[in-house]
Design brief:
The complex is a heterodimer of chains A (478) and B (425).
Chain A (H helix, E strand, L loop, with lengths): L3 E4 L8 H10 L6 H27 L14 H12 L1 H12 L9 H21 L26 H34 L3 H10 L7 H34 L11 H27 L8 H32 L8 H8 L3 H13 L7 H4 L2 H28 L14 H24 L5 H6 L37
Helix pairs in contact in A: 2-15, 3-5, 3-9, 3-14, 4-5, 4-8, 4-9, 5-6, 5-15, 6-7, 6-8, 8-9, 9-10, 9-14, 11-12, 11-14, 12-14
Chain B lengths: L20 H24 L1 H31 L6 H8 L5 H8 L1 H5 L1 H4 L1 H5 L10 H36 L15 H34 L12 H27 L8 H32 L2 H11 L4 H18 L3 H5 L1 H27 L10 H24 L9 H7 L2 E4 L4
Helix pairs in contact in B: 1-2, 1-16, 2-3, 2-4, 2-9, 2-10, 2-15, 2-16, 4-8, 8-9, 9-10, 10-11, 10-15, 11-13, 11-15, 13-15
The chains are: A mainly alpha (478), B mainly alpha (425).
């Protein structure tokens, strides 16, 4: 009696050929819904461009920014998108080093999301500049004016942190794509695609030597990218924590921001993957187990965020003195003009994620879809509360003020989602959205004859047979 | 990308044949000597003796609980690689009843020797800083942590105890009461561990946050740092990892477990130690840079003491032993796989952590001293607790199997390529 062996993470996928067929079919002709969505996104990008040029033409006074709230929706949205950018590298680098076995099918989309989210985030500091055409002054380069950025300013650290992150995550993304692009190159018949993939595949033939170098490079990049996941949002948090604005100056900000970033980033991955799974028929690739595992990470980071909220509330109460600066924002947020934003933040980030303790909910995709949208709304408002509620009550009461975003800010906020969505939609059509090569590592190896060997009785052939059969000494440095 | 470590293998039920005489003797000697020094210190300078007691308690209880937490975390995350080391990490659970039930209450009884605000009063902060509430919250949370840790250890052990009983081990009847059969027991155990694990982790965070805020931060009640609690308990976790590494290397040699605790396992442990050293540095830095940059007087005071004489030397020592040296020393793969180098760094981390805990407490309590307040009393209490820790951990080793022979079904699932099934007709 012949037996069928099934992958533990992807029981529905039987053969290697299935993976190529299913994944590369996404690159084929999309339906009308795709073009509709893309058109919508491009219209949104138009809104972004229009709002931005209106602001440049008529002056930044068009935005609702005023003393003392000089950082409003722009910086809120900037921090939001930097946060979104975190899950991709987490999944592709940290989970890779931890040998988590559920990352294979999801990491490509998450990585693409990372790159696009950083691209989106990078717009905002420039939009926020009074003279955006001079943005390159942020970079240190020898110049006749002998002008240098202020290296002791966390804002300049931010420039370095984020541009490094963009470079490393984009490299990581491009590197991981090579074998898959080669597969797409070999499968496609469309001339322009063939040319594009030929360039991007860098002459990949899948030889043993190439795989050797590829694996090494991947491992080293993963090890390099791992500290970046932590450092980038830490530096972003220090934009706030270094100053002594009440509500910003807090030692817990760095780990708390990192946890919050991973929290929102993973939520965004889930939000995006659920519709993709349905639209492209990838049910066998993104199984409920994947969502279960991601939800557990969302829950874990959500608990860290909750812990930080509680610590801030506690410390304000503990200190017993109003001049202590830490954690003021949370009080301001809960009692002041922005109580509604504080309430949204607490409900979406502290209450709703607790639903994920239930395994049933973790595997219920419609419920997850809704919960993760709530989380991302909550995380946007968290940054809004931190930035706006703190600044609005900066120092002396006579300068307190209430900030209301102007229409350009809302236009640009909406436009940023469209900008991100546009890139993501283009990515789905242009590049393999699921890693073909890595997915095969967790599938049973193809057999020509006979029964597959039992995993429990390995035959030591000296050749790695794929997971489950042989211990392969890893040569990791990190 | 081809470094999957996967195995379905048999692990032997192994334990120490009776308490090794050397360990027993050493533990007893250390504890007695420590007790003697402690009593002398009490008679000469009771304040200092109790302060030494507090900081050693935070150190030893922290590393024991940290090691137990390691066993819990690898179970929650289904870290398949950790199977040969879990039980050994868990064996530190034997010290927890001593730490929480016997060693902790004296800190509360003699708190006026330790905590300045008890005598000075905590004006404006009485709602939180008062002795009845402090005692209640610490005792309750530590008791809850103890119960949960013991329950977790019980369920982690139980399926193996059935196997051990079948092999003729005695003295386990109490633990195998109501035994059904191996399969059902394993299922039940992994279900219960799945529930208890996250609870242990959450209560650990809560209990050690209280310890950090009440027994470290409130020593200077005007000083505030939001990060102090995570910093204190994550350092305890780092200590737990280092202690586990040391104990594993001892058992590996003593019980010749080389076949099971392979070089690859040491490599993984080395990565863990390396990673958490870096993480410690991250937390340290996150707290340091914000306080330094903010330059607020009531925050700065904590750092200023650390970088002033006589504490500067020790601060640098901590930085080097917990971060700089392990970082460069354990960066490569080879040192992680070498028992001597890995063990050396684990001991270095343990030693550095002992001083780090000292620096959490002493500079606040002895801010304006010319010479270091570090000598026999501190060492003596340390020896006392080290003796107790050694004895209790070795006792665990004589009674219970040191390898986890059973494996939760959820992990076996992770190991195989797949599940074999009959095709539908």
């Amino acid at each position: 009696m012949p037996t069928v062996i099934r992958s533990e993470t992807h029981p529905e996928i039987q053969k290697y050929e299935d993976v190529n067929r299913d994944v590369l079919s996404i690159l084929g002709r999309p339906g009308r819904a795709y073009y509709l969505l893309l058109a919508l996104c491009i219209a949104g990008v138009g809104l972004l461009a229009f709002s931005f040029f209106a602001q440049v033409y008529l002056g930044i006074g068009l935005a609702g920014l005023m003393n003392p709230v000089m950082w409003g929706v722009y910086i809120t949205t900037f921090v939001f998108w930097v946060g979104i950018a975190h899950s991709g590298t987490l999944i592709s680098a940290i989970l890779f080093l931890f040998r988590a076995r559920w990352r294979q099918s999801i990491y490509r989309a998450a990585e693409a999301m990372t790159v696009f989210a950083v691209m989106t985030a990078g717009l905002f500091p420039i939009i926020h500049l009074g003279r955006p055409q001079l943005f390159y002054w942020l970079m240190p380069y020898p110049n006749q004016r002998e002008l240098w950025p202020n290296f002791t300013s966390p804002l300049v650290w931010d420039v370095f942190a984020i541009s490094t992150y963009l470079i490393v995550s984009a490299t990581f993304f491009a590197l991981g794509l090579i074998p898959d692009i080669a597969a797409a190159r070999d499968a496609t018949t469309v001339p322009w695609r063939k040319r594009l993939y030929t360039v991007l595949a860098l002459g990949w033939r899948g030889s043993g030597r190439q795989w050797l170098h590829f694996n090494r490079a991947y491992l080293y990049l993963a090890a390099l990218a791992t500290p970046l996941v932590i450092s980038v949002h830490s530096v972003v948090s220090w934009d706030f924590a270094m100053s002594i604005v009440p509500g910003w100056h807090s030692t817990i900000f760095a780990p708390y921001f990192v946890a919050g970033a991973i929290f929102s980033g993973l939520a965004m991955v889930i939000t995006l993957l659920i519709p993709i799974r349905t639209i492209f028929g990838l049910e066998a690739y993104f199984t409920p187990r994947h969502f279960d595992a991601m939800s557990k990470l969302v829950l874990f980071t959500g608990i860290i965020v909750l812990y930080a909220y509680l610590t801030e509330l506690f410390m304000v109460w503990y200190s017993g003195r109003s001049y202590k600066l830490e954690g003021q924002y949370i009080i301001a947020a809960l009692t002041g003009n922005y109580w509604w934003a504080g309430a949204i933040m607490l409900i979406c980030n502290a209450v709703v994620p607790q639903l994920l303790w239930s395994k049933k909910i973790r595997r219920n995709l419609p419920a997850l879809f809704v919960i993760t949208i709530f989380i991302n709304i909550g995380m946007w408002f968290e940054r809004y509360v931190i930035i706006v509620a703190s600044l609005a009550r900066e120092y002396m009461p006579w300068q307190w003020n209430v900030y209301k975003p102007g229409w350009v800010e809302m236009g640009i906020l909406v436009g940023s989602f469209a900008w991100f969505g546009m890139w993501f939609l283009l990515f789905l059509r242009l590049l393999p959205a699921v890693s073909v090569a890595e997915l095969k590592e967790v599938l049973p190896a193809p057999r020509r004859w006979g029964r597959l060997r039992q995993p429990s009785a390995p035959r030591d052939t000296g050749i790695p047979q794929g997971p489950g059969q042989r211990r392969v000494e890893d040569e990791e440095e990190g | 990308m081809s470094h999957e470590i996967v195995e379905l293998r048999e692990y032997p039920l192994r334990r120490l044949d009776g308490m090794p005489r050397g360990v027993l003797l050493a533990a007893a000697l250390l504890a007695l000597l420590g007790l003697l020094i402690f009593i002398v210190a009490l008679a000469t300078d009771a304040d200092r003796a109790w302060r030494a007691y507090l900081y050693n308690w935070i150190y030893f209880a922290g590393i024991a609980q940290g090691a137990v937490l390691l066993a819990v975390v690898v179970s929650i995350t289904r870290g398949v690689w950790s199977r040969p080391i879990r039980r050994i990490a868990l064996s530190f659970v034997a010290f927890l009843p001593i730490a929480y039930l016997i060693l902790f209450p004296p800190i509360l009884f003699f708190a006026e020797h330790i905590i300045p605000w008890i005598q000075e009063g905590a004006e404006g902060q009485e709602a939180y800083l008062n002795m009845p509430f402090l005692a209640a919250r610490n005792l309750l949370s530590l008791a809850a942590l103890l119960v949960l840790s013991l329950a977790f250890a019980y369920w982690q052990l139980r399926p193996d105890l059935g196997l051990a009983r079948a092999e003729g081990w005695t003295g386990l009847d109490r633990f195998t009461r109501g035994w059904t059969n191996q399969e059902l027991e394993e299922e039940r155990a992994s279900r219960n561990m799945g529930r208890l694990g996250p609870a242990v982790a959450l209560v650990f965070v809560l209990a050690y946050s209280f310890v950090a805020i009440d027994l470290v931060m409130s020593l200077d009640r005007h000083w505030l740092s939001m990060l102090i609690a995570p910093y204190v308990f994550m350092a305890a976790f780092l200590g737990g990892i280092a202690a586990t590494v040391v104990l594993i290397l001892i058992y590996r040699r003593h019980l010749t477990l080389h076949e099971y605790v392979e070089r690859a396992t040491l490599h993984d442990l080395g990565k863990l130690l390396f990673g958490y050293c870096v993480f410690w540095a991250y937390l340290f830095w996150s707290q340091y840079i914000v306080i330094w940059y903010g330059n607020l007087p009531y925050e700065q005071v904590f750092l200023i003491r650390l970088v002033q004489e006589p504490y500067l030397g020790l601060s640098l020592l901590v930085l080097f032993s917990l971060f700089v040296l392990p970082f460069f020393g354990l960066l490569g793969a080879r040192p992680k796989k070498s028992p001597a180098i890995l063990g050396g760094f684990a001991l270095l981390v343990l030693a550095g952590l002992w001083i780090e805990r000292y620096l959490l407490i002493y500079p606040t309590l002895y801010p304006d001293v010319e010479t270091l307040v570090l000598g026999l009393p501190e060492l003596g209490v340390g020896l006392l607790m080290l003796g107790l820790l050694m004895a209790s951990v070795a006792w665990f080793g004589t009674r219970y199997p040191l390898m986890q022979a059973w494996q939760p079904a959820t992990e076996i699932e992770l190991l195989g390529v797949g599940v074999e099934e009959e095709p539908a007709p």
